[in-house]
Design goal:
The two termini are 26 Å apart. The strands form four sheets. Strands 6, 7, 8, 9, 10, 17 and 18 form a seven-stranded mixed beta sheet that branches. Strands 13-12-11-14-15-16 form a six-stranded parallel beta sheet, sandwiched between helices. Strands 1-2-3 form a three-stranded antiparallel beta sheet, with no helix packed on it. The protein is α/β, with parallel strands linked by helices. The protein contains eleven helices and 18 strands. It has two domains: 178 residues, Quinone Oxidoreductase, Chain A, domain 1, CATH 3.90.180; 126 residues, Rossmann fold (3-Layer(aba) Sandwich). Helix 4 packs across helix 5. Strand 17, helix 11 and strand 18 form a beta-alpha-beta unit.
């Protein structure tokens, strides 16, 4: 403990870095927290670690003490301003689409959770807020954390795995015995998609670079394609579903590999309707949204050891710019996670 301006301050060490100090707030003053804040759209330099007011949960919200938050490609897109028209004029903002932590406080109308519950959550574009020591969520955005996972592992799940689930299961209606081609199978969404598809009983063909071929097979892919050495359209034919996480030329080349009546689901581009019609197939572009029931389905698969989140790197919150720099390469394996606080002892 140290004294700063007459305020008692408690400081601790995480396993990764010095945890920002928590101040004992004098009576009458609002509590603050450390958070990554964006005041203007732009490059890595706009990511600022600051002291900001701690959120207070509304009657239909829970307050989560964040242990870990994951980094998603959409976070970089938000930072750069590509989604400004969708999320509206809400600067300054705290990014972060998902996190895992412990319920600190509940609103009056919350019946599903109680203080002390370990949870993970997926936030809306309108709220975000995961890159912080505290964040609020509605019951429809959270679920109990899978017991088998650390908080860092759990933080990697909500946004990416929900996207994979909503694309394959809710949109494409993937079923046992069908064949799915997953582009970008080693990435955040892709590595969950392979495991979800296999748990569904589907045959999986996945693309990735040469260094990730063994990784795809360990995830359960029946066939792995090195997209730099082979054209996927020369290998994959008459598939039932294509999950596109790459877009552009990859999407354009995918129409011809889908059997009539099949479907392309893209999470990055809009399939061209005229081209879909010409091939007799369906298409959809999706942006996933938080659904507690999906998180609960994912928890069941995780507890059954059908899904394992792969975390390639864990960085302290203070190194958020490094995490964004890496996610922007689009060549990360699995997920990158920000450690916000120490993992509670089990």
């Amino acid at each position: 403990m140290r004294i700063s301006n007459g305020v008692a301050v408690l400081c601790g060490l995480t396993t990764l870095a010095i945890l920002p100090c928590f101040a004992a707030i004098p009576s009458g003053e609002k509590p603050t927290m450390k958070a990554v804040v964006i005041h203007a759209y732009g490059g890595l330099e706009v990511l600022k670690l600051e002291d900001v007011p701690q959120p207070e949960p509304k009657e239909d919200e829970i307050l989560i003490r964040v242990i870990a938050a994951s980094v998603n490609p959409v976070d970089a897109a938000i930072r750069q301003g590509y989604l400004a028209q969708i999320i509206g004029d809400k600067l300054p903002l705290i990014p972060g689409m998902d996190a895992a932590g412990v319920v600190e406080k509940t609103g009056a109308k919350i019946g599903k959770f109680k203080a002390g519950d370990p949870v993970y959550a997926f936030f809306t574009l309108a709220s975000e807020g995961g890159y912080a020591q505290f964040v609020v969520a509605k019951e429809s955005e959270a679920a109990l954390k899978p017991k088998a996972l650390s908080y860092a592992q759990a933080a990697a799940v909500p946004a990416a795995a929900s996207t994979a689930w909503q694309a394959l299961i809710e949109t494409a209606k993937l079923s046992a015995g069908q064949t799915v081609l997953i582009h970008g199978g080693s990435g955040g969404v892709g590595h969950f998609a392979i495991q979800i598809a296999k748990a569904r009983g589907a045959k999986v063909i996945a693309t990735a670079s040469a260094t990730n071929q063994d990784f795809l097979k360990k995830l359960g892919a029946d066939q792995a394609i090195d997209y730099r050495k082979a054209k996927f359209e020369d290998v994959a034919r008459d598939v039932d579903v294509v999950l596109d996480t790459v877009g552009e030329d990859t999407l354009k080349r995918s129409y011809g590999v889908v059997k009539k009546g099949g479907m392309i689901v893209s999470i990055v581009d809009d399939p061209d309707q005229a081209t879909l019609d010409a091939h007799g197939i369906r298409g959809a572009s999706i942006r996933s949204s938080p659904k507690a029931n999906v998180l609960e389905e994912l928890t069941r698969l995780i507890e059954a050891k059908k899904i394992t989140p792969i975390v390639s790197q864990v960085l302290p919150l203070s190194e958020v710019a490094k995490a964004h720099e890496q996610i922007a390469t689009h060549h990360t394996r699995g997920k990158i996670v920000l450690q916000v606080a120490d993992e509670p002892k089990r």
